[in-house]
Design goal:
β8 and β9 form a beta hairpin. The strands form four sheets. This protein has a six-stranded antiparallel beta sheet, with no helix packed on it. Strands 9-8-11 form a three-stranded antiparallel beta sheet, with no helix packed on it. It is built from no helices and 13 strands. The protein starts with 11 loop residues before the first strand and ends in a 12-residue tail after the last strand. By secondary structure, the chain is mainly β. This is Cupin domain-containing protein. It holds the Pfam family Cupin_2. InterPro entries: Cupin_2, HNL-like_cupin, RmlC-like_jellyroll, RmlC_Cupin_sf.
């Protein structure tokens, strides 16, 4: 096996079923067995955020620029700034995104479930209500 440059991925606009506002991402890496690692760069415009969702094996976010939030269902809101890294455990419902008046960009790192699992990597839920998103 040799070291190889990964193919470039185009920037994709996130679907309205998963995101409120304009969100763009690049899928930088999707490992092949035995690796099940995934790595995306995600860019949120001001006020843009995910719907409630959960990951089968959890997810780590590392903020590279901007200002935003992450919140698990029923838990306190966490403010995110450049250099912050946050981990959400497997199966936990949460959302994340930019603040109302700032962009936010983060790297998203997660794993797909093992080959013997029929569980999806990500399960998407409902969009946040206006009351759930922090007001400026």
């Amino acid at each position: 096996m040799t070291t190889e440059l990964q193919p470039k991925s185009p920037t994709i606009k996130g679907p309205a079923e998963w995101f409120t506002g304009d969100v763009f991402f690049n899928a930088y890496y999707a490992g092949t067995e035995p690796s099940r690692t995934r790595l995306n760069l995600v860019r949120f415009t001001p006020g843009a955020h995910t719907a409630w969702h959960r990951h089968a094996v959890g997810q780590t976010l590392h903020v590279t620029e901007g200002y935003g939030y992450v919140q698990s269902r029923g838990e306190e809101l966490i403010e995110l700034r450049p250099g912050d890294t946050v981990y959400t455990p497997a199966g936990e419902w949460y959302w994340h995104g930019a603040s109302a008046d700032n962009f936010m960009c983060h790297l998203a790192l997660w794993e797909a479930p093992g080959p013997d699992s029929d569980e999806p990597e990500t399960v998407w839920g409902e969009l946040l209500t206006p009351e759930e998103y922090p007001q400026a």
